[in-house]
């Protein structure tokens, strides 16, 4: 499955290069040298666990958690956590595995915190704001090497024409850039085309959390 993820990632570099701009061969080569890893990550001393995806020190770690009550074809809240190197100035996550026709979560650092932007793209152009998915920030921070944001989304598990499978394999995608967002405090800000992209396919099994634990964890998120 990891080998398949690598192949799909290379294809996605071509498919998601909007406006006719393709990521540089050097950037693609850097990604190709790494082995994508998916695993289960649990916070020490808690019942909070995530489906974790990582691909080397220059790409964010992506973690997804859902309540164990999640049912396919029924909307359920999702948690997305990213831990990104400070060299990356925005990070995007696709809930449906591609740039178009599914909810996109775009995040960037904003001072010591982060801005989370809900987006949707009908074509390979700048994604527009998407009101059918809303976010509440669980935590956000920044230090000298990394920035982190964890957000709970209502509306990322089901959308017009698709949705997440609670029991089967789902395909997710990501995109990153080193070009700063012009208005970091504005969730509707424009942002540059991505420099690197990738995708991976996994079931949500490793990210399922007891519903009571999930609900208690996100309580108070803003």
UniProtKB/TrEMBL annotation:
Keywords: Signal. Residues 41-209 form the Cellobiose dehydrogenase-like cytochrome domain. The keyword Signal applies. Coiled coil: none annotated. It comes from the Eukaryota. Gene3D superfamilies: Cellobiose dehydrogenase, cytochrome domain. Residues 1-23 form the signal peptide. PANTHER family: CELLOBIOSE DEHYDROGENASE CYTOCHROME DOMAIN-CONTAINING PROTEIN, DEHYDROGENASE, PUTATIVE (AFU_ORTHOLOGUE AFUA_8G05805)-RELATED. This is Cellobiose dehydrogenase-like cytochrome domain-containing protein. It comes from Staphylotrichum tortipilum.
């Amino acid at each position: 499955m990891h080998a398949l993820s690598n192949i799909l990632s290379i294809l996605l570099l071509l498919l998601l290069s909007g406006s006719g701009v393709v990521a540089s061969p050097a950037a693609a080569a850097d990604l190709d040298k790494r082995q994508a890893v998916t695993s289960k990550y649990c916070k020490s001393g808690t019942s909070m666990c995530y489906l974790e995806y990582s691909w080397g020190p220059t790409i964010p770690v992506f973690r997804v958690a859902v309540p164990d009550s999640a049912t396919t074809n029924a909307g359920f809240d999702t948690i997305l956590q990213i831990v990104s190197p400070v060299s990356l100035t925005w990070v995007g996550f696709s809930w449906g595995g591609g740039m178009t026709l599914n909810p996109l979560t775009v995040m960037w650092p904003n001072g010591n915190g982060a801005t989370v932007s809900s987006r949707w793209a009908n074509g390979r152009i700048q994604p527009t704001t998407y009101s059918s998915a809303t976010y509440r920030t669980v935590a956000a921070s920044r230090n000298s090497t990394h920035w982190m944001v964890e957000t709970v989304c209502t509306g990322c598990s089901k959308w017009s024409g698709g949705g997440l499978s609670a029991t089967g394999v789902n395909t997710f995608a990501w995109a990153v850039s080193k070009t700063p967002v012009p208005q970091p405090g504005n969730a509707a800000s424009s942002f540059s085309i991505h420099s690197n992209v990738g995708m991976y396919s996994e079931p949500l099994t490793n990210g399922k959390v007891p519903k009571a634990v999930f609900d208690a964890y996100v309580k108070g998120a803003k």
